[in-house]
Specification:
TATA-Binding Protein; 4-stranded antiparallel beta sheet; 3-stranded antiparallel beta sheet
Length: 106
């Protein structure tokens, strides 16, 4: 099904993607409908959807790989590896998490 060029395309894409995530056991975060969370025991996955970009992290590398695989079975996706930039901010991994740096404008 082609959705590009339709006024309802972004909403249709979001509904299709969100429905698939819910079928995998994710739930929408109450504070932000673009954030989906999966929790089973000690396993946790956070997925942030922004238009057609996805930021994904998990409590283990194996769980992250399985989640990516499950998404790739349903959608044509590329794994771009470590997050370096998001919404114009530079992202760097540090010892206790991530550091976000906004660009400086004169």
């Amino acid at each position: 099904m082609s959705l590009y060029g339709l006024k309802q395309a972004p909403r249709a894409w979001y509904i299709r993607f969100a429905t698939h995530l819910l079928s995998l056991g994710f739930v929408e975060a109450k504070a932000d409908t673009s954030l989906f969370i999966y929790r089973r025991g000690t396993d946790t996955v956070y997925l942030l959807l922004y238009v057609d970009d996805i930021v994904l992290t998990a409590s283990s590398v194996g769980l992250l790989r399985r989640t990516i695989g499950a998404l790739q079975q349903e959608f044509a996706m590329k794994d771009l590896g470590e997050l370096h930039h998001f919404l114009g901010m530079e992202v760097q991994r540090c010892c206790d998490g991530l550091s976000l740096t906004a660009p400086v404008h004169d």
